[in-house]
Amino acid sequence: MSRSSVNDPGSSLPPVLVTGSAGFIGERLVADLRDRGFEVRGFDTAAPDVRERGDVRDLATLEAAIPEGGHVYHLASIVGVRNVLARPDETWSTILQGTENVCRIAYERGARVVFASSSEVYGDGVGRRLREDMRLPQRYGVWPRASYPEAKSCGESILEGFVARGGDGRVARLFNVSGPRQSSEAGMVLPTFVEAALSRRPLPVIDDGSDVRSFQHVDDAVAGLVALMQTDEARGRVVNIGSNETIAIVDLAHAVGDVLGRSIQIQSVTSVARYGAETTRCRARVPDTTLAGALLGHEATRSLATIVLDLAGSITGHASSCRSIAGRNLRVASGGPSGGTTRCAALPAAQDN
Predict the structure, then answer these.
(1) Cα(136)–Cα(123) distance, rounded to whole angstroms?
(2) pLDDT tens for residues 231-279?
(3) What domains appear along the chain, each with residue ranges and CATH number?
(4) How far is C-alpha 267 from the chain's CA centre?
(5) What is the torsional sign of CA 186, 48, 71, 101?
């Protein structure tokens, strides 16, 4: 595997634009890239620096931000089930029009693009690990919930067209990213559970909690995005970025209690009670990460316990005390650092459709 010249000692680093820079992943990505020595400009409607504020649907403003021959990490999107349900038209237009604008300008400027897609493009997940060459669904349930996966799938098609015309683009399908400073306001499950456990409130689990997910630390996701950008052979490729640890949601609730040393109560709720509207249920959504390892040399290294501890530390401001508590009570999915109680859902490898 060869990497682009940006990794060569003494080479000049390309300028970088990160759309969605004020978001949970975007903030972490910007900080990581600056630590690596890149000159980074953020671009977000909520950017704290007024000079970096902008909407990806505004072609003229975006055109002034995308660097000639640079790198563009395109993360701008409406995220979180509650936000998508409340703002489906904005979800659709931000992803679709924003991606069209990014690709149009990047093509003219000779810029390399990473488009942050989502594991939601796989749909229900059909009970096995999801591989990049699997056939995607034709439909994603009902509007407004479908606005997000449908838009991400169309965004991937826009990237495909960009590459077909000679552009340098690649797609990251991100699986459940969590970690320090993630908010629960949009309905994200892990911060919701951690906040509830720390406050000694019941943890809300939808239905029977048997749906299976795979959670990755935001720092692992950022490392995957950077590796995808810097790997020349990744041009035109779609790559899953995620963790191999899998867990049912009800077991996730218990694992949060174990890690934090709290006795928890489970509150069974409906999706309407949880999000304010019905949502399409996904029974299993976990990645096959073989390609990320082979092509990028990337794998998630931080455990679920680490994610929970870092989240708790960012909420309480006392990470060390959380870690001392957890050291006495750690019971997470098999294969984790504790080797304790098995909470890991065993899924077969992906098969061709």
Answers:
(1) 7
(2) 999 999 999 999 999 999 999 999 999 999 999 999 999 888 888 777 7
(3) 13-175+217-244+285-302 (3.40.50.720)
(4) 26
(5) positive
